[in-house]
Amino acid sequence: MSQERHSQLGIHPLDPGEAGELLKRRQIVRRTRIIVIVILVLLAVGAARTVISRVFNARELQAGTTERAKQYVKTAVAKSSDATQTLSLPGTLQGYVQSPISARAGGYLKRWHKDIGARVEKGELLAELDTPEIDQQLSQAIAARQQAASSLELAKSTVDRWEALRKKDAVSQQELEERRSGYSQARSNLAAADANVERLRQVEGFKRIVAPFAGVITRRNVDVGDLVDPGAGGGAARALFLLSQTDPLRVYINVPQSYSNLIKQGQKVVVTQAELRGQKFDGKVARTAASIDTTTRTMQVEVSLPNPDGALMPGAFVQVALPLKPSGALVVSTDVLLFRRDGAMVASVDAGNKIRLKRVQLGRNFGQTVEVLEGINGDERLILNPSDSVAEGDEVSVAAETAAPKDKEGKPAAEKAKS
User: How far is 62 from 70, CA to CA, in rounded Å?
Assistant: First the structure.
């Protein structure tokens, strides 16, 4: 367009410099648009990535929460107590016959013949006493007996003469009866004198202290010259010796009430002593009290234990193992028990993996296991170590049992180690 035309239209023509400046402006605007578009695209991509990431994170969180919300439990099955069980109880050895040997006569110990640890037979002399008072009393009683005998002879001869005189009617019947009465008194006096002499001779015989049965002297409480008081004043006499029969021995044990019905007379037991390692001694139940002590709720049982070689000593602390016949009741691990307000309970898992709480009645406690008398049938899956928060109807997942490690041959490692 010519300059004239531009002038008519009122449009001033551009200078070459102004045209270049306009071109630069257009390029800047274009670049700005491109940058804005790129930024918007990047923001859109970032927003989409954030949204997608949050969606995946939400799904993972939900899956993790659901997984962690599951209760994984291990279960066990009740077993029947068909195996023989052993009840171990403490006891103290005692002599089958254990008696303190006291003196019946009073005096001074003249000599002793047996000391502690000595084995004696029945009737063997243990000690001798010096009893001067009893000796004098015996001499006096013998003299009184002789005097009574002389009086009896005189009374008898008198009665004989008076009976002859009575036949001649020289004396009265009353006088004859008086002589007969005197004769009867003389006989009674002689009998009393004889009894007194016999008593003192028996007392004097107690000067010799002899063993009433075969055994071992476990204690000697006197020495030569000691005054021995028989306890005639009402007090208890001091024991000179303590004698124990060591073959057989007795063991008294207290069996809890829950086991009392399983103990029978003649049942064999095994006795062990900690100091005699590797040695076991066989005994048997001699008798039972057949009643329960209301204080301890136990039954006293006496065990007879042969001891021919004297390896066991009276007074020793021992353990008595009583093999018990199986009762046939169901036995479960103590780890499955729950103790709540309603009593002992177990948590079982049904076919739908739902928890079912069952109240049980417990029997004997064996430490790691316990008898269940009522409440379960034996085919339930019982939860091991259930938490206190388990409730009826909770859904659980039963954890798979870990397989035992095996060797290269496919055998269990534990079995290989035993072989």
Answer: 13
Angle formed by the axes of helices 132-167 and 173-205, to 10°? 160
Task: Please answer whether residues 242 and 274 qualify as being in contact, where contact means their C-beta atoms are separated by less than 8 angstroms.
Answer: no
| C-alpha separations of 245 from 211, 216, 312, 314, 373 in Å | 11, 6, 12, 9, 45
Burial of 178 (0-12, 13-18, 19+ CB in 10 A): middle
Q: What is the pLDDT of residues 385-404, one digit of tens each?
A: 888 888 888 888 887 643 33
Structure tokens at 327: 């009762």
Instruction: Tell me the Ramachandran region of residue 113: left when phi exceeds 0, alpha when psi lies from -120 to 50, beta otherwise.
Output: alpha
HSE of 15, CA atoms in CB hemisphere, 13 A: 3
Tens of pLDDT, residue by residue over 293-320, are 999 999 999 999 998 888 888 889 999 9
Of 335, 337, 354, 340, which is closest to residue 70 (Cα–Cα)? 354
